[in-house]
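call fold target=histidine kinase
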Amino acid sequence: MQSTAGRPQLMLAHFVAILLAVPTLVMFVLTLVGTVTAPLGIGILLVTLAVPTTQLLATGQRGLARVVLREPIEQQYRDTKGLGLITRVQRWAGDPARWRDVLWQLASVTIGFTLSVLTIALFAYPIWSIVWFGLWKGLPDIFDTPYGDALRVTTTSGAIAVSAGGFVLGVLIWWVTVKPIARWRFGLDAYLLGLSRREVLARRVQEVTTSRAQGADAAAAELRRVERDLHDGAQARLVALGMNLGLAAELIEKDPDAARQLLLEARDNSGVALQDIRSVVRGIHPPVLADRGLADAIRAVAVDLPIDFDLDLRPPQLPPRWNRPSISVSPNAWPTWASTRGRRPAGCVWRRTTGCCTSRSVTTVSAARTGAAAAYRGLRDGSRSSTARWRCRALPVGRPS
């Protein structure tokens, strides 16, 4: 079953919706009259008043529907800033969102208003059952037929039974129906005031296109990093190794001591080159990540930094494709931070929090540090195609971040 707000919030939302029905009806009439009389000139003035006011009312109703349904409701209107009066009205006339607002006005003052009044009536009925008993005690000849001539109450015990039965039945009916009615009433508002299906699909296509482009850019950047590390590290040392072996081959008969020294250097270079290659491989997928998990892998990165870190890492269970970006952000962010803070201790806190619709992995870092903030923005952009959300926020200097 779809989640909704609590019953007290639902009753308050219905009450506010009933209050908004009056100005909504007025704006609906003004919009219709203004649209019909627009060729006469006076209709333009009415539309200029009705359309912005309708937008405010629709925004308020979206807020109510968002609270009741516990889901985001968005709408996009065409921009009219800086336009003249006639051009602005023409832009409004060509905006599908404005016409959906007009359709919402009609539905709100008819179906929506009826459902809200019904909910208030169901809530008031148990109270009326108790009030009726007091009225019957004072004026039994007038209030002796609470349900018409089909039932006539003449005794106190009968009045108590009718009052108690009406109260219990009314509470049960209200309790069972208040949430379904709220979903129907405010679900209609969300459908009419939210984005159309075509707009939702267009936005989703844009997000998928952007995420694919970012994924391709991230893969290309990772490939360039591996190539750069191999070129600047292992390749250079292997070239030096080959040169030393070549010189040693030439000097092995003329100067055995010099050849021996070159061979020793070649042996050292081979070990360093092997270490560089291992570093590149570990950068692709660190063994500690597979053996001990994400938190220990980040701690392993922090060990080599020239600053004491106080790490409080409680990362959530992430898909494997996120582990590598999560680790790569650390050496990009923390050295920049260390260079600005000197040797003073710092801290990193990574915890799991819960959001409205999805779970979030929140990583905090000092956004005042350009390198750190850029690194975390890169991580956020790299994971945009997933359901997780990454947030980079600024914290005062001196506090763990």
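return ok
The radius of gyration is 36 Å. Residues 211-284 form a domain with the Single alpha-helices involved in coiled-coils or other helix-helix interfaces fold (CATH 1.20.5).
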